[in-house]
Amino acid sequence: MRKNNRFCFNSIAILLSLSVSAFLTGCASSDKGVNGQVIVYNWGEYIDPETIRMFEEETGIKVIYDEFETNESMYPKVESGAVAYDIACPSDYMISRMIDNGMLSEINYDNMPNAKNNIGAQYYEQSRGFDPENKYAIPYCWGTVGILYNKTLVDEPITRWAQLWDEKYADDILMQDSVRDAFMVAEKLNGDSMNTLDLTELTAAKDLLIKQKPLVQAYVVDQVRDKMIGGEAAIGVIYSGEAIYTQKENPDLVYVIPEEGTNVWIDSWVILKNAPNKENAEKFIDFMCRADIALMNFDYITYSTPNVAARELIEDESIKYSEIAFPDLSQYDNLETYVYLGEDGDSLYNELWKEVKAH
Amino acid sequence: MTSKKKWLSVPYLFWSGLFIIVPLGMILYYGLTDRTGAFTLENITAIASAGHAKALRLSLLLSLISTIICFLLAYPLAMILSQIQVKRHNFIILIFILPMWMNFLLRTLAWQTLLEKNGVINHVLTFLHLPALKIINTPAAIILGMVYNFLPFMILPLYNALSKIDINVINAAHDLGADHIYTFFRIILPLSIPGIISGITMVFIPALTTFVISSLLGGGKLLLIGDVIDLEFTKTSNWHLGSGLSMVLMIFILINMVLSAIFDKDGEGSML
Fold first, then answer.
1. A174 and A55 in one domain?
2. Of B5, B195, B200, B226, which residue is most buried, by most CB within 10 angstroms?
3. pLDDT for residue A145
4. Does the beta carbon of B228 lie under 8 angstroms from any beta carbon of chain A?
């Protein structure tokens, strides 16, 4: 769900991706591959660039690669059709919005044997929450949202969201600076659904977040990784894909899925309705589902892969059976996936989030 | 300007038409319509809602404080600069402009690293057994970032205005019996008003609209009006509300521009 731009922060990433995309579209017109091209729109730092090069070499199809920063910034760009993308890689709730608005094209699994065989059945199952008949989306990365804590800075194991409201951790807590992830924490703590539109439940969640605000050191997105590695804070809300990387850098960090339950997200490849290069798009996605390629991408971005064939190839046992990368979802009964709330629902959440941030 | 040379302005007119007038028109369009495209004033009246009004008040307060601090720091310096020899003042001005050669975002990010709990400054303080500094993620850090980033924009117009004052005017005041303080308040200060106004404009407006400084140094805990607009465009994709709030902000900028047009007839600000 989140890109993995290691040393940058949002604004620089935006500038870079803008210039990269300008550069790429600049070359594209004059430099088509022998077998045409495919235009891919993916999260920033969400692929091993080497795999793109290999695809171009093996197929003779030129890849024009463009990056986005949030689902919300991706959507209007695809909708406007300013660039005719073939493939995008949105998250669950955004895919359901795109399906609702007829922006996606149906997948033909006959042309994509790797997608059909290598992606675990449980992930297709999980996808039905937003793509009921598995007609549009092929899972690419997935993960959970959880707590990362530094065991040298706390005197007890952190296992619950509720501990993020403990005053002894004042100024030592990092929260996610995004409306759904922040509300998800409070809603799960209250025992509510993270997709609720009930005003009483939402107000309760908002009050809880306002109560927490004095204890929060900062609301961050990418920076949570560097701050946790540097020991700047004791506890942070983080995506599981980032957790593996941070632990490599700082062995004192522990990742847990909180007892109250949390969000499971899936980012998937989709082919857009008006894709000019549909056949090439199928080839590209299928290539990305090849076990060795999926493994390269997993090694590079460290986000959990739904590609069971790739997981089989992982040599490091501690990662292959990692509870962080591959938690057994059947163990938990309170995990949820975000669904699209509609425009009114979105604005309601945003209004409440602004009240929290302005408080 | 003679009519012959008017065509020279064509590239600029084209440029400003395409990249200033058209975008402004788009903001007007988005700001005055809702998602269905119907006319509405709601995006503008939304400024009165509790969260937005609070963000605006905080922005106004922080940028006012920063402007005052910039002015108090810059004025004495500009006076000294305008009185010393040309060779040396060029060097001092260079020192003030030098940081501007580096990207604004990187400089602000550097402040974050400096001020952090385990940051450079606190390491030094702990080493010297002094109490740690706790200003990161507070309004003080944002003001520091604003003053640091915008100070050169205050110094240069002030320096321009002050160095233009004819030394004979000051000498005449002294000859007529005015002491230094009286000369300052009756001669120097009034004559430097154009510089003061453009300096204030050039610090106050970027400080009022910033969202980078507050998100990097404020830890996302302090919501300025610039952050709200940023949020509407990038996170919640409500371009209508974002545009409406930008229009409210433009009113403050217009007031400031009218003031500078009245006082700054010589265009000191354009000397940059």
1. no
2. B195
3. 95
4. yes
For the ranges A218-227, B2-11, B23-32, B184-193, the lowest mean pLDDT is seen at B2-11
Q: What is the CATH number of domain B17-271?
A: 1.10.3720.10
Which positions in chain A touch B52 (Cβ < 8 Å)? 354, 358
Q: Are residues A133 and A221 in the same domain?
A: no
User: Between A and B, how many residue pairs show a Cβ–Cβ distance under 8 A?
Assistant: 73
In this complex, which of A70, A347, A354 lies closest to B223 when CB atoms are compared? A354
ipTM of the complex: 0.83
Is A75 in Cβ contact with B237 (below 8 Å)? yes
State whether A159 and A253 are in the same domain.
yes
pLDDT band at residue B270, thresholds of 50, 70 and 90?
very low
* A9·B216 Cβ contact <8 A: yes
Task: Please tell me the total count of domains within chain A.
Answer: 2
Contact A347 B238 (CB under 8 A): yes
Residue A22: which domain range? 10-142+266-326
B55 touches chain A (CB under 8 A): yes
User: Which chain A residues contact residue B212 at CB under 8 A?
Assistant: 11
Q: pTM (2 decimals)?
A: 0.83
Q: Is residue A2 assigned to a domain? A: no
pLDDT of residue B82 exceeding 90: no
Cβ–Cβ below 8 Å for B221 and A219: yes
Nearest CA in chain A to B224: A358
Q: Are A315 and A209 members of one domain?
A: no
- Using H for helix, E for strand and C for coil, what is the string for chain A? CCCCCCCCCHHHHHHHHHHHHHHHHHHHCCCCECCEEEEEEEECCCCCHHHHHHHHHHHCCEEEEEEECCHHHHHHHHHHCCCCCCEECCEHHHHHHHHHCCCEECCCHHHCHHHHHHECHHHHHHHCCCCCCCCCEEEEEEEEEEEEEECCCCCCCCCCHHHHHCHHHCCCEEEECCHHHHHHHHHHHCCCCCCCCCHHHHHHHHHHHHHHHHHEEEEECCHHHHHHHCCCCCEEEEEHHHHHHHHHHCCCEEEECCCCCCEEEEEEEEEECCCCCHHHHHHHHHHHCCHHHHHHHHHHHCCECCEHHHHHHCCCHHHHCCCCCCCCHHHCCCCECCCCCHHHHHHHHHHHHHHHHHC
Band (B3; pLDDT cuts 50, 70, 90): low
What is the rounded average pLDDT for all residues in chain A?
A: 89
